Amino acid sequence: MNKQHKDVIWVPHAETVPESGGEGVVRRVLAYSKDVMCVENTFEKGAVGALHSHPHTQITYIVSGRFRFTIGEETREVGPGDTLLKQDGVRHGCVCLEAGVLLDIFTPMREDFV
Predict the structure, then answer these.
(1) So what CATH class is 23-113?
(2) pLDDT range class, residue 3, cuts 50, 70, 90
(3) Per mean pLDDT, which range of 4-8, 61-65, 90-94 is the poorest?
(4) In the predicted model, what is the mean pLDDT of residues 32-46?
(5) Counting Cβ atoms within 10 Å, is residue 69 exposed (0-12), middle (13-18) or buried (19+)?
(6) DSSP label at 14?
(7) Average pLDDT of the chain, as a whole number
(8) Which residue, 90, 105, 108, is CA-closest to 2?
(9) How far apart are CA 78 and CA 25, in angstroms?
(10) 21 in the Ramachandran plot: left (φ > 0), alpha (ψ -120 to 50) or beta?
(11) How many Å is the Cα radius of gyration of the chain?
(12) pLDDT band, residue 6 (cuts 50/70/90)
């Protein structure tokens, strides 16, 4: 890891910094260490998480809303309580069908988010 970093253990939601995760998407970095990171993404209806890949394994938990996700060559509609696994290097993205919140867990942490 090139950047120095400190484990972020206690993260009151009211103290998180909302950042743009793209048009109609608000990202909040929650607790993390060098090995794992938790990120909340709030989507407006119609917002797009553009197709992309990264060298992190990612699990997404759908807290609320409805989304059309593509992972690799497969596309499915998902909703509250569903979870998705995106292996490192696999292209993925989504379209928000009904405003909602996604909780993403990354390993290792996303240095580009801090």
Answers:
(1) mainly beta
(2) very low
(3) 4-8
(4) 96
(5) buried
(6) G
(7) 93
(8) 108
(9) 18
(10) alpha
(11) 14
(12) confident
Number of residues that make up the chain: 114
* CA gap 19, 39 in Å, rounded: 11
Give the amino acid at 56.
Answer: H
Confidence check: pLDDT of 112 > 90: no
Considering the entire predicted model, what is its pTM? Answer: 0.91
Cβ-Cβ contacts under 8 Å for 44 (sequence gap 6 or more): 24, 25, 96, 99
Q: Which two tokens stand for residue 54?
A: 């990264």
Query: By the 8 A CB rule, do 58 and 83 touch?
Result: no
Render the burial of 12-38: b for 16+ CB within 10 Å, e for the rest.
Answer: eeeeeeeeebeebbbbbbbebeeeebb
Q: In whole angstroms, what is the distance from residue 36 CA to residue 7 CA?
A: 10
In Å, how far are 58, 86, 109 from 72, measured between CA atoms?
13, 9, 22
Percent of the chain, pLDDT > 90?
89
Residues in a beta bridge with 106: 37, 58
